[in-house]
Amino acid sequence: MDPDHPLDAIRHTAEHERDAYAGSADRPLGGYIALAAVFGTGLAGLVAGVRAGRRPLPQPSPLDLLLLAGATHQASRLLAKDPVTSPLRAPFTRYRGTSGPAELREDVRGSGLRHAVGELVTCPYCLGPWTATALAAGLVTAPRATRLAAAALTAVAGADLLHLLRGRMQQSG
Predict the structure, then answer these.
(1) CB 131 within 8 A of CB 75
(2) Nearest alpha carbon to residue 150 among 45, 67, 53
(3) Contacts (Cβ under 8 Å, ≥6 apart) of 93
(4) Which of 123, 120, 131 is nearest to 35 (CA)?
(5) Is the predicted pLDDT of residue 157 greater than 70, yes or no?
(6) How many C-beta neighbours within 10 Å does residue 104 have?
(7) pTM for the model
(8) Where are the alpha helices (DSSP H) in the chain?
(9) Of 97, 95, 87, 75, residue with least CA distance to 160
(10) In this structure, are residues 122 and 106 in contact, taking their beta carbons and an 8 Å threshold?
(11) CA distance 118 to 140
(12) What is the pLDDT of residues 47-79, one digit of tens each?
């Protein structure tokens, strides 16, 4: 490493900061940067596409916000916890059992980008911004289909809530 070369100095500083931040923990900051870059690039591409197509940006109604909230919640949990979507998470996780009704408990595996993706795909809260952004993009590019899909996902979230309430009532009765 040449200390006078600007790229080597930047790399050294970045490695020092990564180590100072993480301590002895495995924190894949490079993987997080890559995921943030993917998200940002996708968002920039979406904005560029909308501008190029001269599509008007919708003003979401209160109903749209409720639909998107329910759909974001349900889609994020579906992607992060559902047994049927476990093949999508399998390259980044290890099965550990169940964590609740129709939900899996999985550990993140690997290091670097693989670990960062594993953290993303097993965390409904982490998937929330990605899911909400995709749904918002749908409102711009295909509003009727997006509202229909969001309504279906929100209905499933409501049904899940009713299942859980019924189960609690049966246990306490």
Answers:
(1) yes
(2) 67
(3) 86, 106, 107, 108, 109, 118, 121, 122
(4) 120
(5) yes
(6) 20
(7) 0.84
(8) 6-22, 29-52, 62-81, 86-89, 113-121, 124-141, 143-172
(9) 75
(10) yes
(11) 29
(12) 898 889 888 888 899 999 999 999 999 999 999
Q: How far is CA 44 from the centre of its chain?
A: 17
* Cα 26 to Cα 23: distance, rounded to the nearest angstrom: 8
* pLDDT at residue number 58: 83
Max distance between CA atoms of the chain, in angstroms, equals 74
Residue type (1 letter), 129: P
Pick the closest to residue 131 from 22, 42, 61 (CA basis). Answer: 42
Q: What is the pLDDT of residues 110-131, one digit of tens each?
A: 999 999 999 999 999 999 999 9
Please, are residues 69 and 61 in contact by the beta-carbon 8 Å criterion? no
pLDDT at 77: 96
CB atoms within 10 A of CB 127: 21
Residue with tokens 């500083």: 13
* 45, 129 contact by CB (below 8 A): no
The token pair at 172 is: 């306490």
